[in-house]
């Protein structure tokens, strides 16, 4: 236990008669907030680190994955969380086309490919091994269900069991050029020749996007089950049909683009086959809040795997002394559990703390000035040699102290990625609670009280 007393010296001078009045009456000093606090005969500043935060891993139900600008693809086996499988769905449209055009007469088919741009910094898993992708043709149209305005991680559509194409490559996450680095997956020649034939004859199926959807309902791209990596691409993919125009004096290689037609119809299906401590506790919809005491004094963050971390302070009002006046400073240090992060499973660079309630709703982000606090990930703590996240929680602690005792145990803070990246990047973290000897969470509060 640590308590340090620091005395405040105040500039106001009290008369001897007034001082005598106070000593004789034995009344508490009348504190004027907003001014300098009373002199050191009446107040003290106490620093305490004896308040032990409580942690729970909270289940996240379905979340929106459509129209995020990011297509997530892969298959990652994480021993702490389970196997995360991400599949991306796309609705494709027709090229600009005129029935009277002679562009596609006397041409030779070359190839049909998927063309996509890679996104930097969004990956999860083992980049030392080859990544294999599979592309499938959908059996049903991408249509929103009744009374639904988005597609969710739980949405899935039937696709052909026969692949249109596969591609294996090495993923180099630290050297991605988001402008020039592209992904090209060759698709079935039979499909390519069929599309070229429709362009040559002015077929009904390629007159409009709506007509094309009845013929070609869309694409699904997923990671091969033998892969141990997930990554992302820009959602604006293309199907490119390459052909050679042979009626020129010199043969010319050209291509025509079948674009992604509607960003709101692009979505990601994301599932997890859970393993590890959370699986042991049957973590899920019917068991949605797991205390860290049941998972080795650790809590688990992996939004795409349906988990986030809630921090509460149930002993806050009991530990602070009776004559507590005001919190002057409160800081929180959060330590990742040793051996839970590796070169394959790195630490999130940016995490927010947000207020929450008994329903685990996402509230207000804690700020520093006008900017959201991001944890300021520091890789070496002098006392533990561990990396840690650091937050100023003065305002949050002050608000909790102002709440009735019956609700302070249910309110708290959520540790989550920023809302703009929460469900379109891969973030995973395991942290220690206040009783974890190797990664102990530290809440340090300085507060003023009356002697």
Radius of gyration: 30 Å
Broad structural category: mainly beta
What's the helical proportion of residues?
10-25%
Strand content: 35-45%
Average predicted local confidence, pLDDT: 87
Distance between the termini: 20 Å
Low-confidence runs:
1-36
Coarse shape = elongated
For this structure, the quaternary state is single chain
How many individual β-strands?
A: 25
Largest sheet: 11 strands, antiparallel
Number of domains: 2
Count of helix runs: 7
Q: What's the structural blueprint in terms of helices and strands?
A:
Elements: E1 3-6, H1 16-25, E2 43-48, E3 54-59, E4 70-78, E5 82-90, E6 107-125, E7 131-138, E8 159-169, E9 182-186, H2 189-201, H3 209-215, E10 219-223, E11 229-234, E12 238-245, E13 252-259, E14 267-274, H4 277-280, E15 289-291, E16 298-301, E17 307-312, H5 316-319, E18 324-334, E19 352-356, E20 367-368, E21 371-372, E22 389-392, H6 394-401, H7 405-408, E23 412-416, E24 429-432, E25 442-450
Antiparallel strand pairs: 1-2, 2-25, 3-15, 3-17, 4-5, 4-11, 5-10, 5-14, 6-9, 6-11, 6-12, 7-8, 7-10, 12-13, 16-24, 17-23, 18-22, 18-25, 19-23, 20-21
Summarize the structure.
The protein has 451 residues and is mainly beta. The protein has two domains: 3-12 and 26-60 and 274-450, no CATH class; 70-265, no CATH class. 11% of the residues lie in helices and 37% in strands.
